[in-house]
Amino acid sequence: MSTAIVEPGASPSGQGYAAQDRRLASNSLRFLGSVAISVGIQGPTGGILFIPALMAGIVGSQGPFAFFIAMLAMLPIAYVFGAFSREYASAGSAYAFAGSALKPLVGFAACFSLLIVYITYTSANYTSTTNIFEELLHDQGLPHLPWPLVALVFFGLSWYLAYRTIHFSALLIFALEGISLLIVLVVGIVVIAKGGYHGHGLHLQPLTRHGLPFQTAMLGLVFAYTGFSGFEGAASTGEETKLPRRNIPAAIFASLLIGGGFYTFGSFIETIGFPNALALGKSEAPLQVVSAAFVAPWVGTLILVASVVSAFGAILACHNAAARLLFALGRDGFISDKLARTHPVQRSPHIAVGAVAVLSALGVVGLINKQPLDIFFDQATVGADMILCVYLIVCIAGVALAVRRRKPLLAVVSVVGIAVLALVIRYTVYPIAEYPFNRLQIIAGALVLLGFAIPLFIPGFHRRVQASPLFTGELATAGDAGEGPETPLPAATRG
User: What per-residue confidence (pLDDT) applies to 222?
Assistant: First the structure.
């Protein structure tokens, strides 16, 4: 089936994708900018500060093992996302990927779930950043502030910065996270050089399973994804990245290795820096405790400062990614086509940015009677459960793309990804997990199903999705977006 190929952001009808006020700022990001968005979503420094303690409550001393295996398990998923990113450069990410290879409505369901994940992560990061900031105040002997007030400040900063150009956001995230990770690396080297707890805690047992029950290990894998899931976030900048066909796949792999590697490393140094997993699990900021004990008290304070800026970078990255997914859905008539408008100067999807800000704030307001770390745990777990379903859909779409394109390696890797994800999902759902995991799994499952149901209840939306230029072949592929002539991908089969 032959189709007309036009410039990204335009359509033959002159409507929707073509309007000047609906086009994002093309060529705003290069490779490092795309990496910054993905790594920013992961927020490794802010996460390493306390997530290994939560992990210790699940898997004991085997936290580093859980993070490392989770990273390996995600490699085939990263490969599949990279393969799609070589074909499509779309702000919709999973929307274009699954919708083109399978059915447009499946693409919508995947994108809706990923949108909820990023909004949930934005909301969760308000509370995690607030929690770290409160630790910093306590460390300095300063008066306690009401955490909702602190969260409100981060909310306002994120809204303003996400409203600005994506280039500015990426540059800020890259600087904040880069410096923070360098500090973590130095602390880790010192802890290892000193032999861990009391000089004799250095051993490799935390990197092995060491009798950990299989289902517990699976729960640990899922929780690990609360840390470095988001490596696929660069795909949402497809319309704003220079040479996306080359840069985005590389950014996806790089961010997975950076995020997964640092979470494994951070968990390891915290595990060997504490006397046992019970003590680690009770610590609210174990990385700060280890830094102060093994290096110097002022370094512990520096770690808290670095963690605050890292966690805020995660807010900003998640906010930007969610806004671009909502922008892509708005172009096809989801809720309101105003969501697809871009600012005349900043070229950011400012209406979608505002909508994400409000929705993420509601996620905190609805749980305001709980403690910040409890809110983070609940929301991050729901997000991790949902993103596994998104990954599964995209891997299934990878098989379809491999068959259509006759790419046997992509087919094999996609099947491996499906097998890994099916195994993890199976052992986290059955046998039924204990409270609160079972409640959180039900919430995540219901939200995923909602994504499949929504098009059935919005008049005309089913038809608009089917007719989207993303799936009719009207838009150029990633290869056409400034990377020289490429053979266009045929229009997606619609049904």
Answer: 78
The pLDDT, as a whole number, for residue 265 is 96
Distance CA 391, CA 81 (A): 9
Structure tokens at 393: 């859909």
Tens digits of residue pLDDT in 230-265: 899 999 999 999 999 999 999 999 999 999 999 999
pLDDT one-digit tens code per residue, 473-493: 665 444 444 453 333 344 343
pLDDT-based confidence at residue 11 (cuts at 50, 70, 90): very low
Q: Are 393 and 425 in contact (CB under 8 A)?
A: no
| Residue 366, C-beta contacts closer than 8 angstroms, at least 6 positions apart | none
Superfamily classification of domain 20-480: Amino acid/polyamine transporter I (1.20.1740.10)
Return the H-helix or E-strand segment holding 279: helix 277-282
Domain ranges across the chain: 20-480
CA 184, CA 193: separation in Å to the nearest integer? 14
Residue 469 vs residues 25, 56, 295, 319, 460: alpha-carbon distances, Å: 19, 47, 56, 25, 16
Confidence of residue 136 (pLDDT cuts 50, 70, 90): very high
Two tokens at 25? 């700022």
Report how far residue 108's alpha carbon sits from residue 129's, in angstroms, rounded to the nearest whole number.
Answer: 31
Q: How far apart are CA 181 and CA 43, in angstroms?
A: 10
| H/E element, 154 | helix 147-163
* Token pair 């952001």: residue: 9
Distances (CA, A) of 106 to 30, 336, 414, 455, 457: 30, 20, 17, 10, 15
Beta bridge partner(s), residue 6: 475
Q: Round to whole Å and give the CA distance between 279 and 271.
A: 9
For the CA atoms of the chain, what is the radius of gyration? 22
